Amino acid sequence: MDAMVTRGDVAAWVAAYRRAWESNAPDDIAAAFSEGASYFPSPADPPWVGRDEIVAGWQAHRDDPGSTTFEWSVVAVEEDTAVIRGVSTYPTTVYDNLWIVRLGADGRATEFTEFWVDRNAPTWA
Q1: 121 CB contacts (<8 Å, ≥6 apart)?
Q2: In 10 A of CB 57, how many CB atoms?
């Protein structure tokens, strides 16, 4: 964004992302991302680049509408970048999420990186 991102900007973007998550509608997915955005499904994966690839990647990994709940909070906002902590609850699994989102001047994500950990498969035993 040309101006500093606010927590309100982040909340509006999370609402758009969540709308897409619940509908899986290509227009809703595209609405959350800028034309040339990069979406990293995990930090180690190559990104989906551009709206068409983001929509296709999302559709290939979609969740059934109504199958999740999502709680979130903003951890930090710095210039055009926000860090969001979330908890995604599915019928049989709970994921802890950390998102890094860069927002453009239009409020759409220009870059999105998703970190997630399955609570049912702890990394420290």
Answers
A1: none
A2: 17
Dist CA 44 CA 114 (whole Å): 10
Residues 79 and 17: their CA atoms lie apart, in Å, by 20
Q: Is 100 within 8 Å of 120 (Cβ atoms)? A: no
Question: 84: which strand partners?
Answer: 74, 99
What would the two tokens of residue 52 be?
């068409």
Question: How does residue 1 score in pLDDT terms, banded at 50, 70 and 90?
Answer: very low
pLDDT score of 3: 64
Cα distance between residue 41 and residue 46, in whole Å: 8
pTM here is 0.92
Identity of the residue numbered 116: W
Supply the mean pLDDT for the chain: 94
Helix (H, G, I), strand (E, B) or coil at 20: helix
